[in-house]
Design brief:
single chain, 120 residues, mainly beta, 7-stranded mixed sheet, 11 strands
Length: 120
């Protein structure tokens, strides 16, 4: 029923940029907070960026200034644009949706993830 599908990952050179997309289906998420998480080998899964149902955003310190999260409610799609990519950005990136309109607790829905690899 409810499904989140990420796309846009791949191999990127350091200093480059990319845009990840998350297409939601099975339900409208226009009023739900959504976010991007990532998990690198040997590390805990961490919140990269999130956006509330009202459009307010939050970013991890490691990506502030070089990342932009956005959403297109008409398309039921969320995006993450990252620039000035670093090798340490290499991780599996997950799309997630919260049950609430605000960013609280753990997301209720998860995508399967997309690999982002940044080479030097």
């Amino acid at each position: 029923q409810v499904q989140l599908v990420e796309s846009g990952g791949g191999l990127v050179q350091a200093g480059g940029s990319l845009r990840l997309s998350c297409a939601a289906s099975g339900s409208s998420f226009s009023r739900n907070a959504m976010g991007w998480y990532r998990q690198a080998p040997g590390k805990q899964r961490e919140l990269v960026a999130a956006i509330t149902g009202g459009g307010s955003t939050r970013y991890a310190d490691s990506v502030k200034g070089r990342s932009t999260i956005s959403r297109d409610n008409a398309k039921n799609t969320m995006y993450l644009r990252m620039s000035s990519l670093k090798p340490e950005d290499t991780a599996v990136y997950y799309c997630a949706a919260y049950l609430s309109t605000v960013i609280v607790g753990t997301p209720a829905y998860w995508g399967r993830g997309t690999q982002v690899t940044v080479s030097s």
